[in-house]
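Customer escalation, tier 2.

The customer says the design service returned an amino acid string that "doesn't look like it belongs to this structure." They asked us to rerun it and document both sides in this ticket. The original structure tokens are below, unchanged.
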């Protein structure tokens, strides 16, 4: 059975946390290898993520593998060192390291950690091998990269800095993923590269996210989704079918697993995992040693 993992984001309100309590319970019941928690932009971002990670550990049990996102934007060596110490004290041994979104009007190179690789290097220098580090990869090329080769070089530097494995940005073209993996192998990059999967539920939000992230929504898919905007249930069913078939092709082609961007909604991911035969009720999220 292939491994899969799921991602949630820190709620802003008590109602959001209550909803996440229900959804994360359903997600954990599927038996994912771990749950990652994103870190949004803003001065309170890392604290919100920390509180959500600590809460998730309480909800899921001490054996659960919960992986917080660590972002470089806005961080200093002092602040990053402090949050790493808090996570180690909490028993966290798994991190997802990204640069983070640059605030409007700010330079991407500003701050003490202009690139994700700088964050990875710092974590390795401060903590050695205390953490398993996931880096980000972009099969369709990062929107700020000048080209595919430059983007691949940037990814290679993250691996050289100490990343153990990678999670990709979501995509709807399996060939983009396989081409990226082949290009990495050609350069001698042998880390596991897990494809990121975004279930389709809200077409308007998907279009906004994709435009910002440089993700291509194929023309045929846009046309079909445009025709289903007024039929939410039909759109959701179609989305599950499309993403399910994408996952089947990825797994049959050798992808080492799947990472679902759940948007704090369990149902689409649950449906896809059951269709793929991935769901196996475990009660808690498995730790890396399980």
């Amino acid at each position: 059975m292939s491994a899969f993992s799921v991602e949630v984001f820190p709620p802003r309100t008590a109602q959001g946390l209550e909803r996440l309590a229900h959804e994360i319970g359903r997600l954990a019941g599927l038996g994912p290898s771990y749950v990652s928690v994103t870190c949004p932009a803003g001065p309170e971002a890392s604290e919100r993520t920390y509180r959500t990670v600590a809460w998730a550990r309480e909800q899921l049990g001490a054996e659960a593998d919960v992986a917080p996102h660590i972002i470089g934007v806005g961080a200093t060596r002092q602040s990053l060192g402090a949050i790493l110490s808090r996570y180690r004290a909490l028993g966290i041994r798994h991190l997802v390291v990204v640069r983070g979104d640059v605030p409007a009007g700010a330079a991407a190179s500003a701050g003490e950690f202009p690139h994700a690789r700088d964050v990875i290097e710092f974590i390795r220098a401060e903590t050695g091998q205390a953490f398993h580090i996931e880096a980000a990869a972009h099969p369709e090329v990062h929107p700020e990269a000048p080209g595919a080769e430059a983007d691949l070089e940037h990814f290679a530097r993250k691996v050289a800095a100490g990343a153990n494995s990678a999670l990709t940005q979501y995509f709807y073209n399996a060939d983009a993923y396989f081409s990226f993996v082949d290009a990495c192998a050609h350069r001698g990059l042998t880390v596991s590269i897990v494809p990121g999967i975004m279930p389709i539920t809200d077409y308007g939000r998907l279009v906004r996210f994709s435009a910002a992230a440089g993700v291509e929504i194929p023309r045929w898919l846009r046309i079909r989704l445009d025709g289903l905007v007024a039929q939410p249930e039909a759109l959701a069913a179609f989305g599950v079918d499309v993403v399910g078939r994408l996952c089947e092709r990825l797994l049959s082609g050798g992808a080492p697993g799947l990472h679902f961007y759940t948007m704090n909604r369990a149902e689409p991911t649950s449906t896809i995992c059951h269709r793929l035969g991935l769901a196996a009720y475990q009660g808690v999220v498995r730790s890396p040693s399980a």
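Tier 2 assessment: The sequence is consistent with the input. The CA atoms of residues 7 and 233 lie 23 Å apart. Confidence is low (pLDDT under 50) at residues 281-290. Sent an explanation to the customer and offered a walkthrough call.
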